[in-house]
Fold this protein.
Amino acid sequence: MKFRQRLLLVLLLICSALFIISCGKKGDPTLKTFEKPMPAKEIIEAHHEDTKGKGYPSKELEVNLESFVPSKPVNLTYVPSAKKVYLIWDKNPETWVKGYRIYRKRESEVEFKLIGESILPVFIDNEPLSLKAIYYVTAVGPKKEGMPSDSVIVHPLAEP
C-alpha cells in the first residue's frame, strides 16, 4: 500500500471514530445550542481572593456578546470516497466557539448552501459526489458566525 493510500485510510479511520464519538440520537453531531436564544449582553462578576482564601466581588462587567466573532477555520482538508466526503479542519483557538457550519456548492449550482453543523472540527457529507463540489466552513460564536475558511475543491473519484 502506498504512503498516500495509508494516509487517506488513517484519516478516514480518525474521521469515522470522531464522528461515532460525537453522534447524537439521530446519528449526526449537531449544534443543539443554536436552538436556544442567547441574551445580547452578559453580566460577569469576578471574585478576588486574598492569601487566606477569602474573596470579595469585583465590579460588575458588562460584556457585549455581539463582539465575540470567531476567527476563520484553517487547514480545511478532505478525504473523498465513493459515497461520502470527509472534511477535517483545525479546531478554532477561541474557547467560546459553539460549533461549525459547513457549506457546499456543486458545479451545477450558483450559490453555496448550508449542508450541516458540527460541534467537532470534522464533518461527513453523506451525499455521493457525482460532480465537482466546493466546500467551506465557518465557526459560530455566541451570537455571530465568523468569516469562511479557505475553500476546497473536491472532484468525484474516477471509476476503477
Notes: The chain has one domain: 3-35+68-154. The longest helix spans residues 3-22.
